[in-house]
Amino acid sequence: MNNRQTKPESVIARPDADNTGAEGNQRAIRDAIRDAIVDRRLLPGTKLTETDVGALFNVSRTLVRGALQALAHEGLVTVERNRGAFVANPSPEEARQIFATRRIIEPGILMEAARHMTPSHFRQLREQLVDEGRLMNERGQSARRAEIKASGDFHLMIAAMTGNAVMQRFMDELIARSSLVISLYGQSTVSSCGHNEHTEIVDAIEAGQMDRASRLMVHHIHHIEADLDLRVRRANELRDVLLP
Amino acid sequence: MNNRQTKPESVIARPDADNTGAEGNQRAIRDAIRDAIVDRRLLPGTKLTETDVGALFNVSRTLVRGALQALAHEGLVTVERNRGAFVANPSPEEARQIFATRRIIEPGILMEAARHMTPSHFRQLREQLVDEGRLMNERGQSARRAEIKASGDFHLMIAAMTGNAVMQRFMDELIARSSLVISLYGQSTVSSCGHNEHTEIVDAIEAGQMDRASRLMVHHIHHIEADLDLRVRRANELRDVLLP
DNA sequence: ATCCGCCAGATCGTATACAATATGCCTCGC
DNA sequence: GCGAGGCATATTGTATACGATCTGGCGGAT
What we know:
Two copies of one chain form a homodimer.
Chain A: H1 24-38, E1 47-48, H2 50-57, H3 61-74, E2 77-80, E3 84-87, H4 92-116, H5 119-136, H6 141-161, H7 165-185, H8 193-206, H9 210-226, H10 239-242
Antiparallel strand pairs in A: 1-3, 2-3
Helix pairs in contact in A: 1-3, 2-3, 4-6, 4-7, 4-9, 5-6, 5-8, 6-7, 8-9
Chain A binds a DNA duplex (30 and 30 nucleotides) through helix 3.
């Protein structure tokens, strides 16, 4: 079905993220669940019972709990006291806030990254663009997933080029949550215009037109958000649904 | 000694931060340790032995571990596998990254916040400025701590005014880490010029001169960083110290 | 005297046990 | 038939237990 297993999970080196010192086990669980969420194999609202997850990985609830709490911290999981953990189901409002945050942050990142870019970095970006283009022309669920991931990787790649680990970690979280939101609210109509915009952005950077690049980036994020259907309340915010 | 206990910990409502669902206990421990770190009652590098902390709060290691991992995620604590948790000891490089991140983010936050500001918000800011001024004229350790906290609160207050919870959480973390860095690398010479700059910023916003406000904010953050002595490696980064 | 290995204490990593809480079903009374 | 109460089950919250790993000191060999 999907051959994602065989290819490296992501081009971007995940910064040792949190210094949680968590050994490989907890980390592995967390990463597995995170990928599953971002990839939409785990649908929003899905209950993540500690025992069940533990059974899957052959570990005790202790480790699972740790992983779930970490994911909660990243915003990919919500935990309700005495009720358990669920795959996050971001509200339209939360989605808007995520993209608003990105519009605030990413132009600045772009500027900062540009100051550190070497020819090798540009090559890396161009390769990424090629990959995106390839995925854009494929069909099927798995390709769409890969496309969302690749699209996020582009932004992460730029963030990584700032050499700023603090920034990179924030972006990591933002992109993960964005992916979740996109798979939740994304229209079926392919939002592949994104690819062209990525290309334009790289062109602008390479041409030294940083103002233009910044503007393009803001528009690009706007477009991503515009491609969502945030009118529908996709699921159970119950209170908002029931009370007038 | 310090009367901080009697006054509300912070003017800013901490957004339910992570949805860690963690019950009051773990949350309480985390907050207590966080405050102690940011307030510099716990010095960087201090070992936080799970058993000891647990004894202090009369809880088991389980909860302490959770709290420490959360703090690690926030960057206030580092955890070394099989060695335990320590109060973070941010390197000068990390300090630079934190302030670089703030310079990228905060102007945008300012713009966004300004769009939502009501007269009531301005009153709130003015009150904050008065508090800062009062603290500036006091002497003593406790006053200095309060000053650092108040200075951070100003920035948090603006972030809160964006109404963007995602953003607010990032800033929360950034400010906490900034406070830690300031108490680590801050010169004894009072960096109280900050207060005047805060005032100027509010003035600019109120006058609708957002460009000016943004520039002032960037400069302000630059000044905070400039007041640090990042040349000295304050403590044990060992590798960098030993290897030529 | 110095260095090496070994043992003991401390501390962490993980699993398990027990208590607390929520959920669903089932019965009982009306 | 319908609703209330209560028990059974499932799941979480917290504590404890046990094995693993690190740290530091002691004694013997060189």
